[in-house]
């Protein structure tokens, strides 16, 4: 099992970190088998597996439920779990109580929280309590209604300076890694070189220390529109559609099940049922 120290070493040695989200037993099992370095149980599960139109409705219970399933599928992969909307913003005390449940009940290696300077106290409190924290800046989807949409961040010099300040403050507060979401490549590269903890990019270009993608995006599974930063490595939409529609047709045509899908019994044993001798 990796620890956050392994990821620091990977940054130092310029070995890239491959992270993917997973939300359940099969996605976790397949991710572990493929050799991903780090799994994220993202609150994006609200959108890709629960069908909400943002991550805002996702609850602590949802994250615990899915986190436990992921753990069963990937017991040997470093797993980070998102703290969902408003579970780390009200007070340090409630943040610690929520984190206690999420961390203890799932057995994750770290928790992730969105935000900059305004969450540095939470990062310190969680770290002091023994919970490693991954920070997340740039496009922070839980604030979509404040940002006014899912937009690339850090495009003005003021905004870029703020992101650099935030990255440094989050490192200083004790974060073990930093997710950079939807920021220009040059800014992500600058941030990556200015901090010692690994940066994990999503829509942040190739100079980050690692990359993360949403499982359902990279497999094109149940998602229709892909953001520019996504590369589709598979097409489960088409594959699944073909399989399911063929199944429906074969049932209707009486082509399924065939002999090889069917159980048999000795005629002898059925005799009594026919009312015979
Ligand atoms: N399926 C999925 N993949 C994700 O990566 C993801 C989610 N859901 N849900 C939570 C957040 C939301 N994310 C998003 C959602 C949309 C864009 C998007 O449409 N971006 C525009 C860029 C717009 C601009 O240029 O400012 C794009 O066209 O790529 C980006 C990130 C990333 N996260
Ligand atoms: C996009 C990643 C970084 C995330 O936070 C999520 O999947 O919820
Ligand atoms: Mg998230």
TrEMBL record:
GO terms for molecular function: 3-methyl-2-oxobutanoate hydroxymethyltransferase activity. Pathway: Cofactor biosynthesis; (R)-pantothenate biosynthesis; (R)-pantoate from 3-methyl-2-oxobutanoate: step 1/2. It is found in: Cytoplasm. It comes from the Bacteria. The active site is at 181 (proton acceptor). CDD domains: KPHMT-like. Binds 1 Mg(2+) ion per subunit. Keywords: Cytoplasm, Magnesium, Metal-binding, Pantothenate biosynthesis, Transferase. 3-methyl-2-oxobutanoate binds at residues 43-44, 82, 112. Its cofactor is Mg(2+). It catalyses: (6R)-5,10-methylene-5,6,7,8-tetrahydrofolate + 3-methyl-2-oxobutanoate + H2O = 2-dehydropantoate + (6S)-5,6,7,8-tetrahydrofolate. Mg(2+) binds at residues 43, 82, 114. InterPro entries: Pantoate_hydroxy_MeTrfase, Pyrv/PenolPyrv_kinase-like_dom, Pyrv_kinase-like_dom_sf. It is an enzyme of class 2 (transferase). It holds the Pfam family Pantoate_transf. Its EC number is 2.1.2.11. The keyword ATP-binding does not apply. Catalyzes the reversible reaction in which hydroxymethyl group from 5,10-methylenetetrahydrofolate is transferred onto alpha-ketoisovalerate to form ketopantoate. HAMAP family: PanB (MF_00156). Homodecamer; pentamer of dimers. Belongs to the PanB family. This is 3-methyl-2-oxobutanoate hydroxymethyltransferase. It comes from Piscibacillus salipiscarius.
């Amino acid at each position: 099992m990796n620890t956050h120290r392994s990821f620091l070493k990977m940054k130092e040695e310029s070995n890239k970190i491959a992270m993917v989200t997973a939300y359940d037993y099969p996605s976790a099992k397949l991710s572990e088998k493929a050799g991903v370095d780090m799994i994220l149980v993202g609150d994006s599960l609200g959108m890709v597996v629960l069908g909400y139109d943002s991550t805002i409705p996702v609850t602590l219970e949802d994250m615990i439920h899915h986190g436990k399933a992921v753990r069963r599928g990937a017991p040997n992969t470093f797993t980070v779990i998102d703290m969902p909307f408003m579970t780390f913003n009200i007070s340090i005390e409630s943040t610690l109580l929520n984190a206690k449940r999420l961390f203890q009940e799932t057995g994750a290696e770290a928790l992730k929280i969105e935000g900059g300077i305004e969450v540095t106290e939470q990062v310190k409190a969680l770290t002091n309590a023994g919970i490693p924290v991954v920070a997340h800046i740039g496009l922070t989807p839980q604030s979509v209604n404040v940002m006014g949409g899912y937009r690339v961040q850090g495009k003005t010099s003021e905004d870029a300076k703020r992101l650099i300040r935030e990255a440094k403050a989050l490192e200083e507060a004790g974060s073990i890694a930093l997710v950079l979401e939807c920021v220009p490549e040059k800014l992500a590269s600058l941030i990556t070189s200015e901090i010692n903890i690994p940066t994990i990019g999503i829509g942040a270009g190739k100079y980050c220390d690692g990359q993360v993608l949403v499982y359902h995006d990279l497999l094109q599974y149940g998602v229709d529109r892909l953001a520019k930063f996504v590369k589709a490595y598979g097409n489960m939409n088409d594959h699944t559609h073909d399989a399911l529609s063929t199944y429906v047709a074969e049932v209707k045509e009486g082509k399924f099940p065939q002999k090889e899908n069917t159980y048999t019994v000795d005629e002898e044993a059925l005799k009594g049922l026919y009312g015979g001798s």
